[in-house]
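New to this. Please check this protein:
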Amino acid sequence: MFKPKVSTQNEFEFVTIDDLVPDNHLLRLIDKHIDFSFLLEKVRPYYSDDNGR
């Protein structure tokens, strides 16, 4: 006999990376003290303007 399919997930949870990474995480400290904006111009030739690849 076939049993009716029961949904196993009825709820959604929206989270951001900021919610998942603790405030005292090493990468947060690095990001706070080092300005990585210089990388944007260095990698710009490797990305497409219209789709980000």
Remarks:
- The first helix runs from residue 17 to 20.
- Helices lie at 17-20, 26-33, 38-43.
